[in-house]
Amino acid sequence: MIYVKVYSERNRFMPVERPWLKLRRLLKAELRWGPGLGAEVEGAVLQQKLATIEDVAAMAGVSIATVSRAINEPTKVADATRRRVIDAIARTGYTTNAMARSLRMRRSNMILILAPDVGDPNFSNILVGLETEASKRGYGLLIGNTQNDPSRETDYLRFISSNQADGLILFTGHLPFGLAQSPTEARLPPMVAVNEPVLGQDIPFVGVDNFEGARVAAEHLISQGHRRIAFVGHAPNREINRLREEGYRAALGGAGIQIDPRLIIDGDGTTESGRAAAELMFVRDALPTAFLCVNDATAMGVIIALNARRYDLPRQFSVMGFDDISFASFITPSLTTMKQPRHRMGEAAMELLLTLLAGEKPKSREVLLRAELILRNSVSRPGN
Predict the structure, then answer these.
(1) Which of 86, 108, 169, 356 gets the most CB atoms within 10 Å of its CB?
(2) CA angle 366, 369, 375 (to 5 degrees)
(3) Is pLDDT larger for residue 57 or for residue 242?
(4) pTM of the predicted model, to two decimals?
């Protein structure tokens, strides 16, 4: 039986045989299956018809529309019905046929993800959301760790040009090197930027509302009585840093607090930049009572530097982060921060990309999600 099925698949798209080739094939079949059986088996193989969605519907005892929903939107179909459809698909071989149609349509049902650092604490949870939504719709994921290397970006784009991937998810904050050289609309595959927008390009974006999140964080510090609040992570060329600094400035301005330029410290988002920023505060002799850091990694660096100087945290200094990475609750003191809805961010990004791949117009080309204030032990009133 296995031989018959495989042979049938191979011959599905073959042209009509010449008579002498057919005779040779039948003679071989006689030798394989025995006298009188060769022609019967071969005839059954050649006449086996291509399974259709109607066949699946009939076998499962449902409508064609229900079969379509069970394949494309399984969450909208009852479990018992979906199981009947899956069983009918397996028995008819319809899955194989659908794959053949995808090849003819030059669709791979794969999504390429380009990320500069797959070790980034934010990446894994967003990836889970991306994969969850993709799998619901029958898509798989290819992950490219670019390490900010233009040649790597160009190499990964071959998955798009060779039809091994249908669309792009960008974590890089810029167009891939191969596309950036000639970013005409006609050449761009469907793509969505996640976490960091692509500036200067009309690329749909899904991320957290960085301005609003930083404003809420600064207002929390102000509500605790802090007036001298440092911002660690000044980087005008990074959109995330710029927006979070603007949120910080808006909160202080709204509270009538004049910003001391000496309390705005450069930072690239690393733990080392946070440690260096704290040390710089002592060199400048312009100490704050609280540090608002551009992300949790920076905040950890600040805490490490202050703990090394044996300061009592948060009584002498309060420290606040942004992101709520896994380590935030394990450092001493545990970090008060703004939590990004990373799983939902991944789901929303994939929903948006699959809408574009379906040729539909999305409700919005920018989706901004709210960050959640997470209260732990690194913030208190000054001197308490």
Answers:
(1) 169
(2) 160
(3) 242
(4) 0.72
